[in-house]
């Protein structure tokens, strides 16, 4: 009988010690780590980029925003992001004003790239896809294409990058906060 009691107590004590050791190990792991910054992509950047790339070849049409009708630059960006629950305003300038600025050194696929192509700030927008390239609806080429940010035409006209909000947050179209249109050549210094 004494051995049965000893066996039961020993088994319970072993279980409790194992639980205590596990909890201690987990807590010790947390205590010694430094803060880890989470990378948040907008909304799922690979899905956004994949869908945007699937629209290559869709025709350019000023004022349009659907695969059937065609796209202008902002209609293309608005259409792609709306598929993933992100509401954007209609024009490139409005999209730039409604989305937070991103340092181009911290760019990620899915970020928006803005240009001055008409003498007006933020007159063209595309979606950054990585490796210094972006997908956009080009009036000059008459369709959705991929272009390099390294080409002199785009380098000379580049204004900056923005990152749309994630789904579940207030839509950028409904946001009352306006982000400054900062760029060395445009807006406040």
UniProtKB/TrEMBL annotation:
<feature type="domain" description="NlpC/P60">
    <location>
        <begin position="42"/>
        <end position="165"/>
    </location>
</feature>
<dbReference type="InterPro" id="IPR051202">
    <property type="entry name" value="Peptidase_C40"/>
</dbReference>
<dbReference type="InterPro" id="IPR000064">
    <property type="entry name" value="NLP_P60_dom"/>
</dbReference>
<dbReference type="GO" id="GO:0008234">
    <property type="term" value="F:cysteine-type peptidase activity"/>
</dbReference>
<keyword id="KW-0788">Thiol protease</keyword>
<dbReference type="GO" id="GO:0006508">
    <property type="term" value="P:proteolysis"/>
</dbReference>
<protein>
    <submittedName>
        <fullName>NLP/P60 family protein</fullName>
    </submittedName>
</protein>
<comment type="similarity">
    <text>Belongs to the peptidase C40 family.</text>
</comment>
<feature type="region of interest" description="Disordered">
    <location>
        <begin position="166"/>
        <end position="189"/>
    </location>
</feature>
<dbReference type="InterPro" id="IPR038765">
    <property type="entry name" value="Papain-like_cys_pep_sf"/>
</dbReference>
<keyword id="KW-0645">Protease</keyword>
<dbReference type="Pfam" id="PF00877">
    <property type="entry name" value="NLPC_P60"/>
</dbReference>
<keyword id="KW-0378">Hydrolase</keyword>
